[in-house]
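Researcher: Let's do a round of design. I'm pasting the structure tokens now; please hold your answer until I've finished.
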């Protein structure tokens, strides 16, 4: 029997079969939820917002690829990125691992990035590891992001690294703000239990919203940049 309604939009979110499908969480998803639950829902759960790569996003992806090849394989940076060579050169001969894909299960055990029991995953731009200590780095191309520097992304990556290498006791990390040609604050990311608890707190809120079918809409300065243009808070830039 065909039980598919003619008008799928008439189904409340809590009756949508997609609402029961397990999510694979990422820092990006949790960050989006912090900013606006409704926008996160539309992008990552309902998925009715088409992905559009802006010129800024493309440049960011190109920069990450260039640094991956430069740090990992000593391939020279393109001419338009040569001004950042000193950041890469400082990593030469140190055994840096680039674009490391990591994942963990619901219980916090390491697993494969694409494995069926993957619950949370992320990718670390640069990893230096020696014994019980590690340092991680994230390349940033945003021209304004450093004003709102937040260590949570680094913290989630440090937790994934700890899951992969349980002997780790200390993980530090930083962001490199390329548009400003500077390294940001160095963070101690070793409070693994605190990070685990914060991830689980956000996941519990998301799962509760999925069960109720209600995701809060938050008005903020980001609304004019949001792709969800049918929201009453959206406005033109």
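Researcher: That's everything. Go ahead.
Model: Designed sequence:
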């Amino acid at each position: 029997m065909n039980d598919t309604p003619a008008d799928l939009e008439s189904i409340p979110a809590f009756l949508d079969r997609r609402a029961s499908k397990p999510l694979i969480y990422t820092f990006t998803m949790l960050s989006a939820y912090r900013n606006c639950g409704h926008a996160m829902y539309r992008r990552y759960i309902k998925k009715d917002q088409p992905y559009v790569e802006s010129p800024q996003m493309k440049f960011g992806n190109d920069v990450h690829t260039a640094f991956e090849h430069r740090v990992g394989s000593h391939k020279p940076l393109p001419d338009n990125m040569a001004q950042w060579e000193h950041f890469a050169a400082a990593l030469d001969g140190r055994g840096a691992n680039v674009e490391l894909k990591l994942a963990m299960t619901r219980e916090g055990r390491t697993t494969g990035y694409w494995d069926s029991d993957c619950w949370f995953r992320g990718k670390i731009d640069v990893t230096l590891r020696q014994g019980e200590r590690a340092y991680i780095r994230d390349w940033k191309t945003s021209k304004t992001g450093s004003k709102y520097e937040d260590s949570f992304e680094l913290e989630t990556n440090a937790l994934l690294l700890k899951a992969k290498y349980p002997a780790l006791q200390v993980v530090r990390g930083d962001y490199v703000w390329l548009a400003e040609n500077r390294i940001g604050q160095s963070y101690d990311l070793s409070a693994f239990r605190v990070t685990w608890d914060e991830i689980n707190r956000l996941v519990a809120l998301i799962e509760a919203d999925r069960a109720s079918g209600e995701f809060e809409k938050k008005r903020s300065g980001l609304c004019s940049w949001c792709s969800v243009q049918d929201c009453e808070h959206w406005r033109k830039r």
